[in-house]
Write a structure and sequence with these properties.
about 375 residues; alpha/beta; 2 domains; seven-stranded mixed β-sheet; binds guanosine-5'-diphosphate-alpha-D-mannose; binds manganese (II) ion
Length: about 375
């Protein structure tokens, strides 16, 4: 194999807390890709377990290995995009860093794309593959309905549109790069949705292995985010997903507020105190949900969590004052009660969102 020319295949490995899997992963690639000029880019989101160090230790002695370390950001899709954009190899493979995907399928996938397919997808759901490693039943069910929806939206008869294991021509990837949403973890689906024409897909079945070390990072909230991606795409993109999530959480908070206030009233607490208790509990619940859902990729933890909570309550408190003030002013200027109240609430939500985004979560 000559290394004077650049690599033919770049393997992009998104990883978060996968330190114990790094060396076995590189060894597995080395065995599977004999005869192919390859490189591997581990895209690590500043894992606290020292994943980046584990990669660099090996990269020191092996020029085929690279580490892209991102700070202050999280996200499987965006990690893959940045890794893919960092190479000049003609073909790009994406594979999980936990050895759950079958790297021995890569040469077959490469051949399929070299012979003209736009993209080769490692698929768990065609005959020959299976989903034995999938953690639990509810996840399997959720993924089944997700697949049905994704297939329709992607206009492609693909069996495993949620796969995180695929190989694509770099030119194709770059042509689609500007249209990618980049949020969440469904990078393959993101690519399929981004393409103006249906892509020519070849599926390669493989057996999904159980995880040997570390733990899965994909939980129920990641799936909520996925729903957001689909809605965004259906509506033609450009939807402020964060604002929508924030507004939804806010609506949920109003329900919490109401229920807690009613319960407190029933327990014989006077109205003012009951309303105050309801408001505080709703704010804490909203903060927690926004931190886990709306801002999950830049989630606050430790001391920053408590500081964020206090700031959030101050911001929303001011939002409530603005809300009531504006509604009152409009009402006194002869606006209908409902319109005045709606305007007050709308301004309150926008205020809460804008200020907490910059002050509490410091979203860029
Ligand atoms: N850089 C980075 N940033 N990597 C991440 C992040 C992140 O925020 N979150 C997860 N990863 C990495 C993991 O370290 C792993 O290498 C890979 O992305 C997949 O994450 P897992 O947490 O192992 O996912 P899974 O095994 O539960 O999910 C599998 O099934 C999904 C479909 O249901 C994977 O095969 C996914 O690729 C697939 O989409
Ligand atoms: Mn996994």
């Amino acid at each position: 194999m000559t290394t004077a020319a650049g690599p033919t295949l770049c393997v992009v490995v998104p990883c978060y807390n996968e330190a114990p899997n790094v060396a076995p992963m590189i060894a597995a690639l080395d065995a599977a890709l004999a005869g192919i000029a390859w490189e591997v880019v581990f895209v690590d989101d500043d894992s606290p377990d020292g994943t980046a160090d584990a990669v660099r230790r090996i990269a020191h002695a092996d020029p085929r290995v690279r580490c892209l370390r991102r700070i202050g950001r999280r996200g499987l899709s965006s990690a893959v995009i940045e890794g893919a954009l960092s190479t000049s190899a003609d073909f790009i493979a994406v594979i999980d860093g936990d050895l759950q995907h079958d790297e021995t399928r890569l040469p077959l996938m490469l051949a399929a794309v070299q012979q003209g397919a736009d993209i080769a997808v490692g698929s768990r759901h065609v005959s020959g593959g299976d989903a034995a490693g999938l953690a639990s039943l509810w996840r399997e069910r959720l993924s089944a309905s997700g697949i049905r929806l994704a297939r329709i939206l992607a206009r492609a008869p693909i069996n495993d549109p949620m796969s995180g294991f695929f190989l694509i021509r770099r030119a194709k990837f770059e042509a689609l790069a500007h249209r990618l949403n980049g949020q969440g973890f469904k990078i393959l689906l993101d690519l399929l949705l981004a393409s103006p024409q249906p892509l020519h897909i070849v599926e390669v079945p493989y057996r999904f292995r159980p995880r040997a070390a570390g733990e899965s990072k994909l939980d129920i909230l990641v799936l909520v985010q996925f729903a957001g991606l689909l809605i965004d795409n259906t509506l033609g993109g450009g939807l402020p997903l964060r604002f929508l999530a924030f507004a939804l959480v806010g609506a949920f908070g109003m329900v919490v507020n109401l229920i807690v206030t009613l319960l407190a009233r029933r327990a014989g607490i006077d109205f003012g105190t009951a309303q105050a208790i309801g408001t505080i509990i709703a704010m804490v619940a909203n903060f927690e949900m926004n931190n886990r859902l709306t801002y999950r990729t830049i989630r606050l933890r430790g001391a920053r969590y408590w500081r964020g909570l206090v700031l959030f309550m101050l911001v929303c408190g001011l939002g409530a004052i603005a809300n009531v003030g504006i509604a009152r002013a409009l009402y006194h200027a002869n606006t209908a009660g409902i319109a005045a109240s709606a305007a007050g609430s709308a301004i309150g939500v926008v205020w809460n969102y804008a200020v907490s985004a910059t002050l509490v979560w410091r979203a860029r």
